[in-house]
Amino acid sequence: MKIYRTLISAEELARHSGDPAWAIVDCRFSLQDRDYGRKEYEEAHIPGAVYAHLDDDLSGEIQPGTTGRHPLPTVEKAVEIFSKLGIDRDIQVVAYDDDGGALGAARLWWLLRWCGHEAAAVLDGAGRPGARITGRSVRASKRASGGILSQRLSLIWRQTLRI
Fold it and tell me: What SS3 state is found at 51?
């Protein structure tokens, strides 16, 4: 299987319709309206996509006076969220938002890559008007166990942080 590590076209994503080894993640978010992305997801999203919220899912706990508004999550939270999203070590992840991938999708892509998950890409052109995949079920709902991913992430993060 080819691994997508940066961008993926809508046409290529559509070729993997129904593939259980793929996770599509809607990461739409607005800094001005915290509920925007979730509302947009509930209204319409790529079939089979799950939703990840920038504040709730892709960021850690804010420590007033210490962190910014979107600090990195702990290893445990990242593993919990990735598992909830159906992401395990053998899953190809495709993230998208409606800002050309510049906000939520880029954050998920970066977090996955930082954790050592190379099979992560951003949907190319998702933020452009009319860029849609319709009428296709891209991925059946499935939860990953998180066990193997948890062990791998812990090792990678400990090496990165030199713990």
Answer: strand
Report how far residue 2's alpha carbon sits from residue 44's, in angstroms, rounded to the nearest whole number.
29
Q: What is the side-by-side order of every strand in the sheet holding 22-26? A: 7-8, 120-123, 92-96, 22-26, 50-51
Specify the 3-state DSSP secondary structure of 31: coil
pLDDT digits (tens, 9 = 90+) for 131-159: 444 434 333 333 444 444 545 554 444 44
The 10 Å CB-count burial string (b at 16+, else e) for 18-32 is ebeebbbbbbbbbee
Of the candidate CATH numbers 3.30.450.20, 3.40.50.920, 3.40.250.10, 3.40.50.2300, the domain formed by 7-161 belongs to: 3.40.250.10
C-beta of residue 52 within 8 angstroms of C-beta of residue 108: yes
Residue 86: count other Cβ atoms within 10 Å of its Cβ: 21
